[in-house]
C-alpha cells in the first residue's frame, strides 16, 4: 500500500509563474529592510554567515549579502540561505495579508482526498519550512496544515536532486521506501527519489516552464485527478472506464 505521499510545491501543487512573478519580487524588494530590522536575531546572523560562506566572501557586508541574495534569486538557485530569507519575508507577507498561496484547481481536493484515504502526507520543497508553513497555512481554502505530518526542506534534509535526501526522509517517516510516492515537476528530483526506492510521478502543468518537456520514464500526469494510488504502485486512471 502507498501509505505516504510526498509533494513538491512549485510546478506540482502550485504554479511556477506565481512563485516567480509574485513571491520572488516580494522577497527581492524586502531583503535589505528585513536584514536591517532582524540583523541581531541569532537565526538571521547564522544565515548571514551562511551567505558569506557560500559566496566565499567572509567579509561581505550587508549590501554585498543583499547583492548575493538577488544574484541567486535571478539565477533561481535554490540555495538554503536565500530560501531561509525568502521564507521569513513571505511569512510576514502572508501574516500581513499581502500574499495568498496559489494552488492548481485539482491540488487541494487531491491533498484532502489522499489524507482522507488514510495516507500520511508530507512536503519536500526547496522552499524553506517556514515558507511551507505560511504557504499551506494561507491557501484560498483556508489552512491545510492539519493535513501534513512533516515538512522537509534543503536545510533539515539536503538537496532535492540527491538520493540520500530521500533515504533520510524515509527514515524520518519510518516508512519503507516502496510505500512512498513522490510528486514533482523536476526529472532530476524524480530520478533521485526513484533511486532511493520510492514511487515517482512527474507533474506537468499548463503554462509552466517544463510543460512541453517529458518526465523521462516516470509516470506523467497533468492533474492529480489522473493518478490512482489505491494499489501497491501508482497507476494512471483509466479514463475510458470512467466515462463509460
Ligand atoms: C512556498 S515554497 C516557495 C517556492 C520556492 O521558493 C521554491 O523554491 C519551491 O521549490 P520546489 O522545490 O517546491 O519546486
Ligand atoms: Mg518543483
In a nutshell, what does this entry contain?
InterPro entries: Enolase-ppase_E1 (IPR023943), HAD-like_sf (IPR036412), HAD_sf (IPR023214). The protein has 244 residues and is α/β, with parallel strands linked by helices.
Question: Can you tell me about this structure?
Answer:
Strands 3-2-1-4-5-6 form a six-stranded parallel beta sheet, sandwiched between helices. Strands 7-8 form a two-stranded antiparallel sheet. It is globular. Helix 3 crosses helix 4 and helix 5 (80-95) runs parallel beside helix 7 (129-137). It has helices spanning 16-28, 31-38, 42-55, 62-74, 80-95, 107-116, 129-137, 163-173, 187-195, 239-243, and strands at residues 4-7, 120-124, 148-152, 180-184, 199-203, 219-221, 227-228, 235-236. The mean pLDDT is 97. The chain has two domains: 4-14 and 100-243, 3-Layer(aba) Sandwich (Rossmann fold); 19-95, Transcription Termination Factor Rho, Rna-binding Domain, Chain A, Domain 1 (Orthogonal Bundle). Strand 4, helix 9 (187-195) and strand 5 form a beta-alpha-beta unit. The longest helix has 16 residues, at 80-95. It is α/β, with parallel strands linked by helices and 244 residues long. The site of magnesium ion has 7 residues, from loops. Its cofactor is Mg(2+). This is Enolase-phosphatase E1. It comes from Ilumatobacter coccineus (strain NBRC 103263 / KCTC 29153 / YM16-304). It catalyses: 5-methylsulfanyl-2,3-dioxopentyl phosphate + H2O = 1,2-dihydroxy-5-(methylsulfanyl)pent-1-en-3-one + phosphate.
Amino acid at each position: 500500500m502507498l501509505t505516504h505521499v510526498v509533494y513538491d510545491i512549485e510546478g506540482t501543487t502550485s504554479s511556477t509563474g506565481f512563485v516567480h512573478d509574485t513571491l520572488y519580487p516580494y522577497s527581492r524588494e524586502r531583503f535589505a529592510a528585513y536584514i536591517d530590522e532582524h540583523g541581531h536575531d541569532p537565526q538571521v546572523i547564522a544565515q548571514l554567515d551562511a551567505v558569506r560562506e557560500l559566496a566565499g566572501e567572509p567579509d561581505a557586508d550587508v549590501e554585498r549579502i543583499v547583492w548575493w541574495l538577488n544574484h541567486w534569486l535571478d539565477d533561481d538557485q535554490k540555495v538554503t540561505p536565500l530560501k531561509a530569507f525568502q521564507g521569513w519575508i513571505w511569512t510576514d507577507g502572508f501574516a500581513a495579508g499581502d500574499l495568498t498561496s496559489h494552488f492548481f484547481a485539482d491540488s487541494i481536493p487531491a491533498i484532502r482526498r489522499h489524507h482522507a484515504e488514510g495516507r500520511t502526507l508530507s512536503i519536500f520543497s526547496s522552499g524553506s519550512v517556514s515558507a511551507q508553513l505560511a504557504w499551506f497555512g494561507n491557501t484560498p481554502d483556508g489552512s491545510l496544515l492539519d493535513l501534513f505530518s512533516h515538512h522537509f526542506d534543503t536545510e533539515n534534509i539536503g538537496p532535492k536532486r540527491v538520493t540520500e535526501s530521500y533515504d533520510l526522509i524515509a527514515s524520518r517517516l519510518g516508512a519503507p521506501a516502496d510505500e512512498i510516492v513522490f510528486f514533482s515537476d523536476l526529472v532530476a528530483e524524480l530520478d533521485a527519489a526513484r533511486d532511493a526506492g520510492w514511487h515517482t510521478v512527474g507533474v506537468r502543468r499548463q503554462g509552466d516552464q517544463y510543460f512541453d518537456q517529458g518526465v523521462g520514464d516516470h509516470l506523467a500526469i497533468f492533474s492529480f485527478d489522473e493518478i490512482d494510488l489505491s494499489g501497491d504502485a501508482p497507476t494512471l486512471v483509466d479514463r475510458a472506464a470512467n466515462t463509460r
